[in-house]
C-alpha cells in the first residue's frame, strides 16, 4: 500500500480489528510521490522520503514488534531529482559522475522515456555498478527494510552503448538476469554476515520479487510477479490473463509467481475508463489466495480503484482470504522445496498431472492445480455465481468441495458449481493428508 506513515498506521489498525494475518507492509512510495499525467508516480531516487514517512524508524520498530516486515521498492533506473525538495542524495548525479549509466550513441547518459518522465539506466555490465548498487541496498536494509520489489529490467534500449561493448540487442535479454543477480548476491552476502540463529532463521531473511526475466532469471530471482494487468475481467490483459501468465510461466521455470491483487492499470479518461470494481477486487483476492504470494496493489490511480481497506466488506473479505492463504502455508513450504528439487511450479496446469486426458489440454485460465492436491476453479467473469469445473481422468481419489464437503467421483465430467462471492470453487483430494490438514486449518481459523 501507499500513503505515508499516518495512512499505514490507520490501515494497520483496521487490519488488526479484522484479525488479518499480516507478514509485511509493502510500501512502494517510501521514496516519495509526484503527480504525473498517468497518475501518482514515485521519485526514482532510492532513499526514504522523511516527509512522507516521518517517524520511519518508529514505524518499522512498531511493525516489527508484531512480527511484520517492511518492504520497499527499487529498480535499475534513476530519475533526476533536481526538483525534489527533500532529497539528501541525488543518485542520478552520483551514477553519472561514476560513469556507470548506460550511454547513447554520442557517449552521453541515455535518457530513457518512462511513461511521464525520463530516467538514466544503470549499466549492469560495468564492474563498478554492482558494488555501488549493493551499497544502496545495504542502506535500505540498515533502516529496517527486509524486502523489496526489484522492478523493471526489461527496458534496455536496442541502440544503447554498454561498458562491455556487447551488442545491445543481445544484452537486452541478459540485462534482467544481471539485475536479478545483483539483488540475489546482495541477499546472500547479507545473510552470510549474520551469525547464529539469525543466520539460519527464515524469519530473518531478505526477499525481493521481480517481473522481468530471461533464461537464467529463476536461478537468481527469489520471487516473480506478472507485471501490470488492467483492472478488468479481460482475457488479454485482465484477471484471466493473470492465470494464463501464472501457468505458462510455471512451465517456463518460474516456479514462484503471482499477480497484483486487483490488477494495476486503471484508465480514467473521458472516453476510456477502467476502474477497479469491488467485485473484481474480491474475486482477485479469492484467486490469489491460491498463488505463491498474497499481495495487494493500489494501482496507478488509487482513488479510482476499490481497495482492500475501502469498506467493511472489502476488509472482511481480505481478512477471510488472507486466512485461507495462511491455512495452506504448510503445503506451500512443501511445494517450494519440491520446486527447488524438481523444478515443478507451485501453481500447475492440469496436464502436468493428467497428461493422458486430452480434455485438460483445452483448458486455459479456467482452472489450475496447487501442487497436486488442491484444485482451484476461480470465478473470473463479472456477475457470475457459478463456474464449470472439470474433474480429470486418471485420479484414484475423489475431489472434495472445501465449503460443502461434497465428493465428486465422476472422472472426465464437467459440473456446474455454485460459487458465490466468498466461496470460490476449490477442491482437495478426499482423504489426503494435505486436504485434511488444509480443512483443519480452515476450521481453526473459523473459515469453515
From TrEMBL:
GO terms for molecular function: hydrolase activity, hydrolyzing O-glycosyl compounds. Residues 5-313 form the Glycoside hydrolase family 31 TIM barrel domain. Gene3D superfamilies: Glycosidases, Golgi alpha-mannosidase II. It comes from the Eukaryota. Residues 343-434 form the Glycosyl hydrolase family 31 C-terminal domain. Keywords: Glycosidase, Hydrolase. Belongs to the glycosyl hydrolase 31 family. This is Alpha-glucosidase. It comes from Acer negundo (Box elder). The lineage of its organism: Eukaryota, Viridiplantae, Streptophyta, Embryophyta, Tracheophyta.
Amino acid at each position: 500500500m501507499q500513503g505515508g506513515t499516518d495512512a499505514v498506521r490507520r490501515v494497520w489498525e483496521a487490519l488488526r480489528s479484522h484479525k488479518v494475518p499480516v507478514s509485511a507492509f509493502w510500501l512502494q512510495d517510501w521514496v516519495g510521490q509526484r503527480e504525473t499525467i498517468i497518475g501518482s508516480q514515485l521519485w526514482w531516487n532510492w532513499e526514504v522520503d522523511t516527509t512522507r514517512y516521518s517517524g520511519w524508524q518508529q514505524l518499522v520498530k512498531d511493525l516489527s514488534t508484531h512480527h511484520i516486515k517492511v518492504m520497499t521498492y527499487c529498480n535499475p533506473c534513476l530519475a533526476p531529482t533536481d526538483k525534489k525538495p527533500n532529497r539528501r542524495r541525488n543518485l542520478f548525479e552520483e551514477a553519472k559522475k561514476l560513469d556507470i549509466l548506460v550511454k547513447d550513441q554520442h557517449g552521453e547518459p541515455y535518457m530513457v522515456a518512462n511513461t511521464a518522465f525520463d530516467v538514466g539506466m544503470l549499466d549492469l555490465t560495468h564492474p563498478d555498478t554492482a558494488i555501488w548498487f549493493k551499497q544502496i541496498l545495504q542502506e535500505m536494509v540498515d533502516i529496517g527494510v527486509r524486502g523489496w520489489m526489484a522492478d523493471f529490467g526489461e527496458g534496455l534500449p536496442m541502440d544503447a552503448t554498454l561498458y562491455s561493448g556487447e551488442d545491445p540487442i543481445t544484452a537486452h535479454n541478459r540485462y534482467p538476469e544481471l539485475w536479478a543477480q545483483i539483488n540475489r548476491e546482495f541477499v546472500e552476502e547479507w545473510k552470510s554476515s549474520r551469525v547464529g540463529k539469525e543466520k539460519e532463521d527464515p524469519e530473518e531473511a531478505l526477499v525481493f520479487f521481480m517481473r522481468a526475466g530471461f533464461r537464467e532469471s529463476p536461478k537468481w530471482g527469489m520471487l516473480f510477479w506478472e507485471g501490470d494487468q488492467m483492472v478488468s475481467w479481460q482475457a488479454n490483459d485482465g484477471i484471466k490473463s493473470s492465470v494464463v501468465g501464472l501457468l505458462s510461466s510455471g512451465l517456463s521455470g518460474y516456479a514462484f509467481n503471482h499477480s497484483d491483487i486487483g490488477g494495476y492499470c486503471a484508465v480514467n479518461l473521458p472516453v476510456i475508463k477502467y476502474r477497479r470494481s469491488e467485485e473484481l477486487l474480491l474475486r482477485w483476492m479469492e484467486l490469489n489466495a491460491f498463488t505463491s504470494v498474497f499481495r495487494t496493489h493500489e494501482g496507478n490511480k488509487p482513488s479510482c480503484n476499490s481497495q482492500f481497506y475501502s469498506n467493511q466488506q472489502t476488509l472482511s473479505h481480505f481478512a477471510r482470504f488472507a486466512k485461507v492463504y495462511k491455512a495452506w502455508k504448510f503445503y506451500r513450504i512443501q511445494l517450494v522445496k519440491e520446486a527447488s528439487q524438481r523444478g515443478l511450479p507451485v501453481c500447475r496446469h492440469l496436464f502436468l498431472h493428467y497428461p493422458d486426458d486430452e480434455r485438460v489440454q483445452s483448458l486455459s485460465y479456467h482452472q489450475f492445480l496447487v501442487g497436486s492436491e488442491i484444485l482451484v476453479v476461480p470465478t473470473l467473469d463479472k456477475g457470475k455465481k457459478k463456474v464449470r469445473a472439470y474433474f480429470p481422468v486418471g485420479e484414484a481419489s475423489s475431489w472434495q468441495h472445501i465449503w460443502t464437503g461434497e465428493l465428486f467421483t465422476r472422472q472426465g465430467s464437467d459440473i456446474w458449481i455454485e460459487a458465490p462471492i466468498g466461496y470460490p470453487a476449490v477442491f482437495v483430494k478426499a482423504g489426503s493428508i494435505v486436504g485434511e490438514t488444509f480443512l483443519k486449518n480452515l476450521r481453526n481459523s473459523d473459515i469453515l
